[in-house]
What we know:
The chain is of the alpha+beta class. Helices cover about 30% and strands about 20% of the residues.
Amino acid sequence: xxxxxxxxxxxxxxxxxxxxxxxxxxxxxxxxxxxxxxxxxxxxxxxxxxxxxxxxxxxxxxxxxxxxxxxxxxxxxxxxxxxxxxxxxxxxxxxxxxxxxx
Length: 102
């Protein structure tokens, strides 16, 4: 899945992120979002998305808007199920926005 992440980027030019910028992104996805996923907290998961965000799961229709995204995360997760979010690559497209292949 591709995730667009907005960060407080410390690099001077797009495409030249610092290790701190990439560490911030890794924390957002692999720690912060994972915590919300692991306890099936749809409100906390939806807070990672902008109000006009889009989300597409491989098995569902295109979902638009933070309220619809919150609803998409409102499902009964099997007891003990945990998320695994491995970052394949990070590409900054502006000083504050990165595309992250997860």
